[in-house]
C-alpha cells in the first residue's frame, strides 16, 4: 500500500510539473498581484551571443533600448551552442522597438567574433561588470564597477566604480566615443551598481556596500557637473537630508539591505516607486518594495515569485524590472546560473535572462 501511494504521489507530481512546463504563460495570483511566466526565447536567437547575466536596460529614446550585460558567452564559430564559447566580462545590445514580439536585438562587444573582448575594457587582471545608467541631455551615462579576483569567499570582489560618458549615443555602439572616469572614495559603496534615476537637476544612483554586506545608499550628482566630467561632488541621503560625506565614520543608516544588482523605477498606475530584487542565495525568490520617493522610506519586501529550478546547483540572481518595455504590467528579468561550470556550458536553458511579468490588481470597491 505504501509503495502504491508513493507511486501515486510521484505520478501527481509529474503531472503537475508537466503542466507547468507546457504552459507558455502560467499565471499565479498573490493577493493584489498577478504573476505571469513569459516566453523566454527573446535572448536565445543570436548564434554568436550565447548568454549573459546582469541584464539592465536604459531607454535611449526613438524606440531604442540599451541592454547592459556582465559575464557573457560568445561562440566564435557561430554554431548557436555554448560548448566552444569564450567568456568575456561584459557586452551590450541595442533593441529596436519597445515590444518584445516586434523588436530586434543586436549585440555588441569589442574585438571580433573569433576573438571577442569585453565592450567596456580595463587593462590588466581586473575587469568591469555593468551597473545601470541613464540618458541625459543627449548624453549616455553608464555606471560600471571594477572587480578583482580573490582567494577567499566567492573568489571575487568589487573594489571601485567608474562613470562612462558617451557623447554620441545615437551612433552605432561600435563608434561610441567613451570617456571613463574613476569614481572617488565612497567608503566601500559601489555607486550605480544598481538603479539610476533622474529629475530636472540631479542624477540619482543607488549604491551597494561591497563586498557581501549589501547595505543600500542613495547618492546624487548635479546633472550639469556630471556631464562636464565632475563626479567628485556627491551628496548622500543621510537621516532625511542631502549631505556631503567626507569620512567613513559615523556610518549612516542604509535605506535597506539589497543585492549588488536591482532596479528602481516609478510605476504610474500605482503612483509608487517600485524596487525589484532577488531574496536569498541559491534557490532565491524575487520580490518588491514600494516607496513614495526614491529615498524612501521603503516598505518591507513582498515575495511574489519562486523560479522553478531543475538542478540542485542552480541558483537565481540579478532580478531587474524593465519599464521601457511595452507590456500589460511590468516585465522583469532574472538569471539562473549553475555552480557546476560544466552544467552551465551544457544547459542552454539557463544563463539567458528569463522574463516574468507582474500586474498589480485594482482594488475592488
What does this structure look like?
Helices cover 9% and strands 47% of the residues. It is mainly beta and 365 residues long. Strands 14, 15, 16, 17, 18 and 19 form a six-stranded antiparallel sheet that branches. Strands 1-2-26-25-24 form a five-stranded antiparallel sheet. Strands 3, 4, 5, 6 and 7 form a five-stranded antiparallel sheet that branches. The protein is globular.
SSE topology:
Elements: H1 2-22, E1 27-30, E2 33-37, E3 49-61, E4 64-74, E5 86-88, E6 91-96, E7 104-108, E8 110-111, E9 116-117, E10 127-136, E11 139-149, E12 156-166, E13 178-182, E14 189-198, E15 202-209, E16 215-222, H2 223-227, E17 235-238, E18 241-243, E19 256-257, E20 263-267, E21 272-279, E22 285-291, E23 302-305, E24 314-321, E25 330-338, H3 341-346, E26 354-360
Antiparallel strand pairs: 1-2, 2-26, 3-4, 4-5, 4-6, 6-7, 8-9, 10-11, 11-12, 12-13, 14-15, 15-16, 16-17, 16-19, 17-18, 20-21, 21-22, 22-23, 24-25, 25-26
